[in-house]
Specification:
There is one protein chain. The chain is α+β, with helices and mostly antiparallel strands and 426 residues long. It has two domains: 139 residues, Chloramphenicol Acetyltransferase, CATH 3.30.559.10; 238 residues, 2-Layer Sandwich (Chloramphenicol Acetyltransferase). 34% of the residues lie in helices and 21% in strands. The strands form three sheets. Strands 7, 8, 9, 10, 11, 13, 14 and 15 form an eight-stranded mixed β-sheet that branches. The radius of gyration is 21 Å and the shape is globular.
């Protein structure tokens, strides 16, 4: 299977400092039975042929190949989103893990995005609960019928179907780069657990959706931080929050592969100061203006069209990797400061709800972003996961403190190890 359009970049520019893996997890009310989970993983293999794959290297392109046997479930260890080494990617690009009551699935991003990953997790958890407790769980709310054959539309590269062929000219200025002391071999994860209703009410007070509100608060946090460290306004750089857009909602696609494009709404602090309400209005306006089907089709075309150029297709893969790395550095992460990816409210069939206490979504750090943020809501709680590969916890400290100031109570959890740096985490 060919990699979808969004997936092409991930194997080409992966680095040891950039894991390019994301996690979805379900925390149950009782400890996980590994043998039952393994049975569920095995039974789902025919239903999800695009998930049970390994990465292969061709002459001109990377591609995905179905694995002969399902991956073995293993106990969770170390910290979330450990690097997928070359050997592991050649074996399977999917990990299924358990720890006490939690089932966690980690995906190499070439397989799918957060929405597709959540469909797999929901279906896996549903099958596990059916085997464990004899439940009858209907195929609804993102749970697929595990006995059904995979549908063609689930396996398609929707980017090619929804391009308009006209490349959008999207030149934009580079954004501020967040920096810190790199921490090798560890990712710090801080989770802010907030009441969803409080978050919704705070968002509505600013006239915004939850995604717009959180993005604007993140933007405001970075603007204030930059102002403290750079008193000379003329030397300040644009602050932009990268917001992934789920294109399935725009085009009605049901693909389980990647179908997301990112926008970089933001402000130039050299123009003056902004209130949070103004940031929310600008954020909402920019997302609305740039997130139309027509505009996004032009962005899709900018990515798809080069694949159809005969000269580029004939270039050997090692040279393509160099070219894609250069293009990514010029047009990719340099345009934003941090990702804020919100999967929204996660719903489950009613039969599953008594057995599932928590659902989460965690993205890794980027190639040049030392911090990232992912959000998901379930059961009246919203889980805001802030991850970093640097020692300094300054961004999450400022961000969560600002939420508290805005009337949103935050309960914090952290995986920071016991060390001399522990005090800084607190």
């Amino acid at each position: 299977m060919r990699l979808d359009n969004a997936a092409l970049i991930f194997p080409a520019i992966r680095r040891r400092r950039w894991v390019n893996v994301f996690r979805v997890s379900a925390t149950l009310t009782e400890p996980v039975e590994p043998a039952v989970l393994q049975q569920a993983v095995t039974e789902l293999m025919p239903r999800f042929p695009s998930m049970y794959v390994r990465l292969r290297t061709g002459v001109f392109w990377y591609y995905l190949e179905e694995v002969p046997a399902p991956p073995t479930v293993r106990e969770d260890y170390a910290y979330p989103l450990t690097l997928m080494q070359e050997k592991e990617l050649r074996t399977c690009c999917l990990r299924i893990m358990y720890f006490r009551n939690r089932i966690a699935v980690e995906f190499f991003h070439s397989l799918t995005d957060g929405t597709g990953g959540m469909v797999y997790l929901k279906t896996l958890t549903a099958r596990y609960l059916s085997l464990r407790y004899g439940l009858e769980i209907p195929a609804e709310e993102g749970v697929l019928d595990w006995q059904e054959a995979p549908r063609a539309e689930e396996l398609e590269d929707s980017f090619f179907r929804h391009t308009n062929g006209v490349t959008l000219n999207d030149h934009e200025p580079d954004a501020l780069r967040l920096k810190g002391t790199y921490e090798p071999n560890f990712l710090y994860l801080t989770t802010g657990v907030v009441p969803t209703q409080s978050l919704v009410e705070a968002s509505h007070r600013c006239g915004a959706t939850v995604t717009v509100f959180l993005s604007a608060v993140m933007e405001e946090t970075i603007l204030r931080w930059q102002a403290e460290s750079c008193p000379n306004r003329r030397k300040r750089k644009p602050v932009k929050v990268t917001v992934p857009i789920n294109l399935r909602r725009l085009y009605g696609s049901s693909t389980l592969r990647n179908f997301v494009l990112a926008l970089n709404p933001g402000v130039d602090p050299r123009m003056g100061d902004y209130t949070l309400e103004q940031l929310c209005k600008r954020m909402a306006a920019q997302l609305a203006a740039e997130g139309t089907p027509q505009q996004m089709a032009g962005r899709i075309a900018a990515n798809v069209n080069p694949q159809n150029v005969t000269l580029i297709r004939a270039v050997p893969l090692p040279i393509k990797n160099v070219i894609m790395g250069i293009v990514y550095s010029m047009r990719g992460e340099s345009k934003g400061c941090i990702n804020l990816s919100n999967l929204g409210r996660i719903r489950l069939p009613a039969a599953m709800e008594p057995y599932v206490r928590r659902m989460e979504f965690i993205i890794g750090t980027q190639r040049s972003y030392p911090n990232n943020c992912s959000v998901a809501s379930y059961g009246g709680e919203t889980y805001i996961n802030m991850i970093r590969n640097i020692r300094e916890p300054e961004l999450e400290r400022r961000f969560f403190s600002r939420l508290v100031e805005l009337g949103v109570p935050v309960y914090l959890e952290s995986n920071a190890p016991e060390s001399p740096r522990k005090g800084a985490e607190s």
